[in-house]
Amino acid sequence: MDDSLSLLIETMYATVLDRALWTQALGSIAEKCGGVGSVIVPLSDQPGPGLIASRSLAEPVRDYLDEEWWKLNSRVARCRVLGVKCGRVSDRTLFAGQDLTRDPFHQDFLRPRDFGSFVGHVMTTPDGRSFSLNVQKALSRGPFQSAEIASFDLLSRHAARAFSAAAALEKQDLLAMLASPDRDERSKGLVALDGNGAVLQANAAARAHFGRALKVENGQLVAARTSDRPKLARAIGAALAAGGLETDPVVALSSTGRGRPDLLVEIIPVSQACSDFSSFVFGAQALVFISDLEAPDTANVEGCLVALGLTKGQARIACSVGGGQSPNDVAKDLGLAETTVRSVLKQIYDRLGISSQSQLAVLATKLRSRR
Question: In the chain, what are the domains?
Fold first, then answer.
């Protein structure tokens, strides 16, 4: 084995601890195998937040995702139909006869970009998710030669081992975060959702709330109360789109039959808390943080708010609204007009330097957790 191959294999195993090296490693694999670039593609019905690819494929990968060509990726579809879990694949092993001449993905996406044949290695991570490491050949350079295939077989075996090891370590990191999220003491519940909003993982604290103000139905996280479901669905949808800035990410939820909220649920895009590699490998695209409003307070929230500059009356209203009650409910509880409560809220926001009920809820939750 020549020195350049040995160095490349070392680089692949270095990706186990430094995931950022995958881009460099994929570029070198393509070069050694006579390809124009390499990419790791999930064999699933959704692309995830992105793909891991060599720099030479950056623009085609952008088109693939932005123009939703992943929905027509016949290579992925054939691997899934055939149940391929490991080993080498190519157009020759996946397709028969004139299939490619009638295939939109090949004719309308690959050919215009001078992409011809490919050779791939399917690999399955310890948690059962399958991916294919593909080297793409230029159409103008013809099919892969036997020496190029031999190089690919050698390198792809090492790449698969490195990828599985990196995935295992990444899963340990994700599970550690699920066990002890970096949030305040009351935000102990954490749920990871995939791109369709299905529950991937949930820690014990989150599962303890299932059946209370939250439920899992057909794999989806939903509110227990029918009236709460639309606002939770909107918040989840906004986080999955990673651009729904007009949608409040914090939702107050109540148990069935109760008017006062039990939980505060904050939904954020996974990119704000996890590495790109983690979201790619596990398909997680949103994280749900759950705060228990029924947990015993460890500090006087109203006292803390007074210390921050509010009057006692303002602090009482801020505590109630920050606990998930609507201005209308607070007005009824205190015997005030709703317009009065909303006017006081504006004063509270100005004093605390915030601008929304969701920000007030986050602040109140943090103050409750102070020891």
Answer: 3-173 (3.30.450.80), 180-292 (3.30.450.20), 301-369 (1.10.10.10)
